[in-house]
Amino acid sequence: MVVSHRVPDLGALELLLAVVRLGSLGRAAAELGVTQPAASARIRSMERQIGVALLERSPRGSRPTEAGALVAEWARQVVRAAEALDAGLDALRERRDGRLRVAASLTVAEYLMPGWLVALKGAHPGIAVTLGTANSTVVAEQVRGGEADLGFVEGPRTPPGLNGTVVATDRLVVVVGARHAWARRRSAVTAAELAATPLVLREKGSGTLEVLDRALAAHGGTAPPLLQLASTTALKAAAESGAGPVVVSELAVADELASGRLVAVPVPGLDLGRPLRAVWPAGQRPTGPARDLLSLTRPSRPGRRLPGPHETAQM
User: Fold this and answer.
1) How far is CA 124 from CA 82, 94, 167, 194, 282, in A?
2) I need a surface site. Which of 109, 207, 222, 312 has the fewest CB within 10 A?
3) Is 303 helix (H, G, I), strand (E, B) or coil?
C-alpha cells in the first residue's frame, strides 16, 4: 500500500479538528498543549502539503474554508479510525499481558513452579496462568512452536533454537527400595556397575535420562532399561516395590528417604548434578508476565541449589 505524501499526519489532523470545533487557533493550541505560534506554523505546513487553504483567519477567530470543512470531515473519519485502532491495540496488549502459558519439566513443575506462581499472582493478581508439564524435549518443542511463552527444562545445555538462563541447580540420586540388595550393601556401587545394571528409567526425551546418559558415557552409557516410566511418581512406586534402582531428583524423594521407604545409593565419583533452565525462542526477549515470572526464578547467587520440599524458595 502506497501512502500519499499529501496526507497529513494524525497530529496535524487533530489540530485542524480542534480549530474547527473551538473556532480559535489559540484555544485549539491550548487544548493540545502547544504554543499558538507552533500551532499556526503546523496549519500553514499542512496547507502547503495539501495545496489548499484550510482556515480563514480574522480578529474574531478562525473558521474553515469550504475546502477546509471538507478536509475536516475526512479527517474526523481518520481520527475516529485511529482511536478505534488504538483501543483495539490496548485490548490486545491487555489480553497478552493478562495471560501466561508456561511449559515445565516435571521436577520444575512439581517442586519450584508452585512457589513461583504464588509469588507471581501476589504481585499481579489479574494474570491468568496455564501450566503444562512434559519432558524437556517436548517443553522445548512447545516453546519453539509458540505453544508456550516460557519453558523450563532440565539438562546440560540449552535446547537448539532457544535462548535460556540457568535458574537453579539440581542433583540426581540413585535410590532403591528398602528390601533391595543395594540397600544393605556395605561396599559402594561403582559408576561402571551402575552403567551395567538395568534401571527403572524415565522415558526418552527427559532431562533426567539425558543427564544420566552423559554421566555414564565413559562407562558405555546406561544399560537397556528394566522399565521406562513417564512420571516421577511412577518411578518412586517402582523403586518402593523392589522393581529395581531408579534415578530421580533428590527433591522428589526427600520424604521417602526420611521415612526409610527408599534408600539412597552413593556412587562415588559420579557427577549427577544438572542445571534447570528457563528457555524462550532465540532472538526474542521475555516480555510482560513471562519477564515477571523469569525475574522470580533468577538465582540470588551463582550455583543456587533448589530448596527442599519443606523449605521456602527465596524469591
Assistant:
1) 30, 13, 21, 47, 26
2) 312
3) coil
10-95, which class in CATH?
mainly alpha
Residue 266: predicted pLDDT: 94
Q: Where in the chain is the domain with CATH 1.10.10.10?
A: 10-95
- Rank 73-77, 81-85, 246-250 by mean pLDDT and report only the highest: 246-250
Bigger pLDDT: 172 or 306? 172
CA 306, 312, 315: angle at the middle one, nearest 5?
75
* Residue 205: C-alpha distances to residues 16, 129, 153, 154, 182 (Å): 63, 25, 11, 10, 28
> Which cell goes with 142?
512447545
How confident is the model at residue 299, as a pLDDT? Answer: 53
CB-CB neighbours of 184 under 10 Å: 10
According to CATH, the topology of domain 100-297 is: D-Maltodextrin-Binding Protein; domain 2 (3.40.190)
b vs e for 120-134, b when ≥16 Cβ sit within 10 Å of the residue's Cβ? beeebeebebebebb
Per-residue pLDDT for 142 more than 90?
A: yes
Q: What pLDDT, in 10s, does the model give residues 23-56?
A: 998 998 999 899 999 999 999 999 899 889 999 8
DSSP 8-state code for residue 308: P
Strand partners, 56: 63
Quick one: average pLDDT of 13-27?
A: 90
| 180 within 8 A of 242, measured Cβ to Cβ | yes
